[in-house]
Amino acid sequence: MVTSREASKCLANVLLLEPxxxxxxxxxxxxxxxxxxLKNIVRHSKQYSKSSRKDPPSAADTQSLSETLKLLFNLSxxxxxxxxxxAKSTPLILKILxxxxxxxxxxxxxxxxxxxxxxxxxxxxxxxxxxxxxxxFPKSDQYCNIDRFxxxxxxxxLNYQEEQxxxxxxxxxxxxxKVFESAPTNMKPHIQAALLPSNAERxxxxxxxxxxxxxLLRLSNSAVAPSLRxxxxxxxxxxxxxxxxxxxxxxxxxxxxxxxxxxxxxxxxNPVEGYSTGESEDPGEKVTNVDGKEINPxxxxxxxxxxxxxxxxxxxxxxxxxxxxxxxxFERLVQI
Length: 336
Prior knowledge:
Largest sheet: 2 strands, antiparallel
Shape: elongated
Number of strands: 2
Strand order of the largest sheet: 1-2
Helix content: 55-70%
Radius of gyration: 25 Å
């Protein structure tokens, strides 16, 4: 068993580090044989059955599982034609991920390898057109897998620095995007409620709270985690039904503007103009009205809860002087 585990480890590393060996591997007809060897996942999944929880897997078992998962990821990454065969392991991987005890911080083996292994396996292949048969939304508990993903993400953003999340959390956010896209209609509101800011958070500017949604918003503006920033912004946009108006309404212009501009998406017109209580379909009203209350479209905060400006109103001359001062400062900044 030890020899087999070490062989799998060497094979996974060679395929990852030496591109030319991948074709040799294919020419010798080994992908199918390697896929057969992945039946080891069945053995590992049995160790996470409800009846086996009192006797957790040993360190050697966990290492063996990690190497098998790395091999699975490499095969699916470099030999996509074999993904339908490899995808048969999806229910077992999800079973292990849902039942494996989570450490804190959570993104460490085998959890990271379980997430990576799922990335290239189709979420909505021909077997899963009937959502009741989808391994991601099992009939016994449709919410178990998605709630597990969200719980892992929540733990991760609480316990890692942004620089660490760049490599560790991006695969999980990517997986959440794929799962949401293929989720049945009745599941989507559940995912949106967990990841988008709630109306209760609008008592202050969005992104200021301690909820998972607020932490994701702050990470969507991260200067040190560009891949994670893009993945989170894409996730929030997709949770908003890929609609720019809904996106701005959900997260505020402050967090939405950069993503919309870099992706050449139309920005809702006139969002800061007058508020109306009518049933207008004007996009501007949609981003300034939530549950009958006017909101600041830039910050997402309810207008009546914004701090009141008690200072004196500037005259037109004062406004012009302030504008000139800011222009001069900007020109100096450009010259630096």
